[in-house]
């Protein structure tokens, strides 16, 4: 077993996989004040993630709740269904939406009326729907302040990303940016079980894991300069989207519309223009000027980045549909809620329909980040 692990370890850290030819890991040892990223640095992201969880708890309790109250968002108390072991077991193991014949069978089994069984399932389903206050808290905690590095030359000149590679010294701002980003995604993974359960739950799991793996691998290969640029491009638009969600929950329609328009503009600038013509140009085209032989990591990293650009175009299509409705029909508020923020409002409509005993008609799946 030890031999197998040693062999796998040697394969994983194969120098031709990560770094250019005629360069070894020994060349990337710290010397003369020059510091390089080390794989063991990533161990710190786990305790940092728990620190972020504590910070999140403080924000949710002492900032998000008072802010929500100031915006007029009330904490609605859901009515709990009457305790019933038979129905609870059926709800958990069989289905949350039994058919009429199943309801009649359960009514006989519990010696209840059909109406009481239907009412019990409605209330039990409603308990699992997050309140507006809870969704507001999550949106408030989703703000992520990134470390801006506009003073560095590669922030403006993409050619500078590969100058001197792989012998590029690690900056303290880059270290903390990476640690914060990876820790942030770890903390999101740790709370997936307690956060609002969305339709794209598995997509979020895959997204968070993929983000952690890509950032960790770029750290190990010292692709830190291009890695920080990729993170900045993606972090910039998130602030405006989460802000739009928060004001949408508070029913501040005009403010939500303005924020969504700003988000749309930032989204298209960063992910439809800058990412392909700036980032991908720096990862696909420019490395050939600095090395005649591409390392295997060149193909490993560019594959996911190209897939990511495909997702940008996919999400951009839905954003365009919203803006089209707004510009030509003047229905921005309605479109924002019915399309990009559809998931949140569908849950509200779903709750209203449940109270009437109706089945909700969902129009469009939620589009994640």
Q: What would your notes on this structure say?
A:
With 369 residues, the chain is mostly helical. The protein is globular. The protein is 66% helix and 0% strand. It starts with a helix and ends in a 14-residue tail after the last helix. It contains 15 helices and no strands. It comes from Gopherus evgoodei (Goodes thornscrub tortoise).
Report the biggest beta sheet as strand number plus sense, adding barrel if it closes: none
Average pLDDT taken over every residue = 78
Bin the strand percentage. Answer: under 5%
Percentage of helical residues? 55-70%
Helical run tally:
15
Order of helices and strands: HHHHHHHHHHHHHHH
**SSE class:** mainly alpha
**Unreliable spans:** 144-148, 332-369
* Structural shape: globular
Number of strands: 0
Report the C-alpha radius of gyration, rounded: 25 Å
Q: Give the termini distance in whole angstroms.
A: 41 Å
What is this structure's SSE topology?
Blueprint (H helix, E strand, L loop, with lengths): L1 H11 L2 H4 L26 H26 L14 H9 L6 H11 L3 H15 L3 H10 L30 H19 L10 H20 L3 H26 L3 H33 L1 H4 L5 H34 L2 H7 L3 H14 L14
Helix pairs in contact: 3-7, 3-8, 5-6, 7-10, 8-9, 8-10, 10-11, 11-13, 13-14
Tag the structure with descriptive keywords:
369 residues; disordered C terminus; single chain
Characterize this entry briefly:
The chain is mainly alpha-helical and 369 residues long. The chain has helices at 2-12, 15-18, 45-70, 85-93, 100-110, 114-128, 132-141, 172-190, 201-220, 224-249, 253-285, 287-290, 296-329, 332-338, 342-355. It starts with a helix and ends in a 14-residue tail after the last helix.
């Amino acid at each position: 077993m030890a031999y197998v692990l040693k062999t796998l370890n040697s394969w994983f850290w194969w120098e031709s996989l990560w770094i250019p030819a005629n360069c070894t890991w020994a060349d990337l040892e710290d010397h003369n004040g020059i510091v390089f990223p080390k794989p063991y640095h990533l161990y710190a992201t786990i305790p940092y993630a728990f620190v972020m969880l504590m910070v999140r708890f403080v924000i949710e309790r002492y900032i998000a709740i008072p802010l929500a109250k100031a915006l007029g968002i009330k904490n609605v108390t859901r009515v709990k269904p009457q305790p019933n072991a038979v129905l609870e077991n059926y709800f958990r193991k069989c289905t949350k939406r039994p058919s009429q014949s199943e309801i009649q069978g359960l009514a006989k089994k519990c010696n209840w009326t059909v109406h009481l069984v239907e009412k019990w399932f409605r209330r039990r389903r409603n308990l699992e729907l997050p309140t507006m206050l809870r969704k507001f808290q999550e949106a408030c905690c989703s703000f992520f302040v990134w470390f801006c590095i506009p003073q560095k030359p590669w922030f403006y000149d993409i050619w500078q990303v590969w100058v001197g590679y792989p012998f590029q010294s690690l900056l303290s701002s880059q270290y903390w940016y990476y640690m914060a980003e990876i820790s942030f995604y770890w903390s999101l993974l740790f709370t997936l079980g307690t956060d609002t359960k969305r339709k794209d739950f598995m997509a979020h799991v895959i997204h968070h894991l993929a983000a952690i793996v890509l950032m960790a691998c770029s750290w190990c290969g010292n692709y830190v300069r291009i890695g920080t640029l990729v993170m900045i491009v993606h972090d910039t638009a998130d602030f405006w989207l989460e802000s739009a969600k928060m004001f949408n929950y508070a029913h501040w329609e005009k403010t939500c519309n303005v924020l969504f328009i700003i988000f749309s503009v930032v989204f298209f600038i960063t992910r439809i223009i800058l990412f392909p013509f700036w980032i991908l140009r720096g990862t696909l085209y420019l490395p050939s000027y600095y090395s005649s032989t591409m390392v295997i990591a060149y193909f490993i990293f560019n594959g996911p980045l190209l897939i990511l650009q495909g997702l940008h175009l996919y999400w951009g299509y839905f954003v365009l549909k919203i803006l089209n409705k707004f510009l030509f029909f003047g229905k921005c508020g309605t479109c924002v809620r019915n399309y990009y923020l559809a998931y949140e409002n569908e849950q509200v409509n779903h709750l209203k329909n449940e109270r009437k005993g109706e089945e909700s008609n969902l129009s469009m799946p939620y589009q994640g980040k």
